[in-house]
Amino acid sequence: MPDPGPGEALIDIISCGVCHTDQHYQQGQINDDFPFLLGHEASGTVSAVGQDVTEVAPGDRVVLNWRAVCGECRACDRGEPEYCFATHNATQKMTLEDGTELAPALGIGAFAEKTLVAAGQCSKVRDDVDPAAIGLLGCGIMAGLGAAINTGAVKRGQSVAVIGCGGVGCAAIAGAQLAGATTIIAVDIDPQKLIAARTMGATHVVDSSVQDPIQEIRAHTGGFGADVVIDAVGRPDTYRQAFYARDLAGTVVLVGVPAPGATLELPLLDVFGRGGSLKSSWYGDCLPSRDFPALIDLYRLGRLDLDAFVSERIGLDQVEAAFAKLATGSVLRSVVEL
């Protein structure tokens, strides 16, 4: 573990969620920069900082993010740092004892007692809230919340459908409720996930293993389709469902990560004729320095139940078992506590 260099911070990890993205790294679906240091939905305490670091100081409680903005690219220059085109991580590498460099998952690598990150990956937060709950904002929960609030721009009184009700999908449901949607339709093939979706704010549920989701979403929206449909799965079939389940001039948001090589075919006349917007949501289009503190305040006020996403608290030696539970859909998030 190198000492933090300019612009870097050393973090004592307190908690880290077990995310599907870690499993994708493990299975070689991201890239082949093995060996990886997994874990990225993390909260911790700053233990040391390098030169020129002003964002945080030793002793600060932080939630880590995987997009330290540059402040200088085209997006940042036009006042849209949430779209920063030159996000970065720590320059130095952590290593194994024999000197082998580790590739930290999403530039974080928090299945460990300490990790080295760019200081811009640290969002200073309150220390009087559950670190296991707020740490989940570091990836999947923020992606879902942001897909509804930031990308989908859900408004009061609108109808929203969410296809796929794992951690990201349930967070999108919570975000839709927070934004004031009055009809929120959850779609999944797993009855247990639909139960979880109800607890997060879904007003209607659709078991797409036995029901046509397009017909059911239209039935719950006066025959028109939803104003915003969020695809939290990222498969061609679920995206097609989202496309045809939205109202005219409605919005489709893709937040589920597609598999490499996946392709989509739609009639171009339908793309033109239905109007509206087709959007991709990368990390919920969030700006961590803005969004994390605001969402944590809503959590403290009882308006955002982050605790509900913590399905179990585990030790570092139970990560493999947590991956198996992800595959069965029996948990929203297992959280490692160090």
Automatic annotation (TrEMBL):
Stretches assigned to the Alcohol dehydrogenase-like N-terminal domain: 5-126
Cofactor(s) essential for the protein: Zn(2+)
KW Oxidoreductase (keyword) present: yes
SUPFAM superfamilies referenced in this protein's UniProt entry, alphabetically: GroES-like (SSF50129), NAD(P)-binding Rossmann-fold domains (SSF51735)
Highest taxon of source: Bacteria
Alcohol dehydrogenase-like C-terminal domain location: 167-298
TM segment ranges: none
Gene Ontology MF terms: mycothiol-dependent formaldehyde dehydrogenase activity
Keywords: Metal-binding, Oxidoreductase, Zinc
The EC number(s) this enzyme carries: 1.1.1.306
Family recorded in the similarity comment: Belongs to the zinc-containing alcohol dehydrogenase family.
Name of the protein in question: S-(Hydroxymethyl)mycothiol dehydrogenase
Species for this entry: Arthrobacter russicus
